[in-house]
């Protein structure tokens, strides 16, 4: 039996965000599933572009990138997009990534930052974040691409915007972190596991991590650990269907301990496995595990 075609309901997807966050990859992914794609379209042409693509019956959706390359014209984007979304089915995607990730990507590609070479990459990133803050607040979907590979990002976008996608799918990212290094900005749910006994004070465990079977067994040996795991699993299995019904495509769950080496690592791994056992897609990221003491 033939698969159903995309409904003929024209969509306009506007991609914006930080330089080096993967906007080109998202645009290409949308183009591959049938969107008419344009990079770096002037802000003042967005409404006209949407009108022209809607008039062509063979075009089922249009996607464009608007970003810091627009210069001062970018300040007009919020007003332009507010007007456009009243007449078109529109989605605004904002892409970002951690500063370290963006700096690494610029280093690998050896490309200059669009804000120029007269200041450091880190200063350019801070400046760009500030300039884009009003647009970020308008986004329908904000994606931190720090832990995505190019292929994973493309797959995520294809599943999010293709009409044949399984609406019951949600990608879950389970993160461990240390409070001494700050909260993960992309987190949707944060759980503090500093109430659990700390293996850091056991000499043989001090320089190991929660991945080590001995460390994990030690943390799991306490009744409060077992009860916490059971209760958090029960809570998440209750919440996830509700998030899916509301259209959420991905969820980041973070577990934090003092340094991000032992308790949070063990807990993130355990919860990720339980979610996978329950049939959900889950990835794991130990943000601070490599930070030396």
List keywords for this structure.
alpha/beta; globular; 5-stranded parallel β-sheet; 2 domains; single chain; 9 helices; disordered N terminus; 39% helix; 4-stranded parallel β-sheet; Rossmann fold; 293 residues
Textual characterization of the structure:
The chain has 293 residues and is an alpha/beta fold. The chain has two domains: 11-161, Rossmann fold; 171-286, no CATH class. The chain has nine helices and nine strands. It has helices spanning 23-32, 46-55, 77-84, 99-109, 121-136, 150-161, 213-220, 223-245, 263-277, and strands at residues 11-17, 36-38, 61-65, 89-96, 141-144, 171-178, 189-192, 250-257, 281-286. The strands form two sheets. It has a five-stranded parallel beta sheet, sandwiched between helices. It has a four-stranded parallel beta sheet with strand order 7-8-6-9, covered by helices on one side. Strand 2 (36-38), helix 2 (46-55) and strand 3 (61-65) form a beta-alpha-beta unit. Helix 1 (23-32) packs across helix 6 (150-161) and helix 8 (223-245) crosses helix 9 (263-277). It starts with 10 loop residues before the first strand and ends in a 7-residue tail after the last strand. Mean pLDDT is 86; it is low at 1-8 and 163-168.
């Amino acid at each position: 039996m033939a698969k159903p075609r995309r409904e003929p309901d024209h969509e306009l997807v506007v991609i914006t965000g930080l330089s080096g966050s993967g906007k080109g990859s998202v645009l290409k992914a949308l183009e591959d599933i049938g969107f008419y794609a344009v990079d770096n379209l002037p802000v003042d042409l967005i409404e006209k572009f949407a009108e022209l693509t809607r008039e062509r019956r063979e075009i089922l959706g249009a996607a464009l990138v608007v970003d810091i390359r627009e210069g001062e014209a970018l300040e007009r984007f919020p007003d332009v997009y507010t007007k456009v979304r009243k007449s078109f089915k529109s989605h605004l995607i904002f892409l970002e990534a951690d500063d370290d990730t963006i700096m690494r990507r610029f280093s690998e590609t050896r490309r200059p930052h669009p804000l120029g070479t007269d200041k450091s990459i880190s200063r350019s990133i801070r400046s760009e974040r500030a300039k884009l803050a009003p647009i970020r607040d308008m986004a329908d979907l904000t994606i931190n691409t720090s832990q995505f590979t190019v292929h994973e990002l493309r797959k995520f976008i294809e599943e999010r915007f293709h009409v044949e996608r399984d609406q019951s799918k949600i990608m879950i990212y389970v993160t461990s972190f240390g409070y001494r290094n700050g909260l993960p900005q992309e987190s949707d749910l944060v759980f503090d596991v500093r109430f659990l006994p700390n293996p850091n004070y056991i000499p043989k465990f001090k320089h190991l991590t929660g991945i080590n079977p001995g460390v994990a067994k030690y943390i799991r040996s306490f009744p409060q650990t077992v009860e916490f795991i059971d209760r958090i699993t029960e809570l998440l299995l209750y919440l996830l269907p509700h998030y899916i019904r509301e259209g959420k495509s991905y969820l980041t769950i973070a577990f934090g301990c003092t340094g991000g080496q032992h308790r949070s690592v063990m807990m993130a791994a355990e919860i990720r496995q339980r979610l996978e056992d329950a049939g959900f897609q889950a990835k794991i990221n130990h943000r601070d595990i490599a930070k030396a003491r």
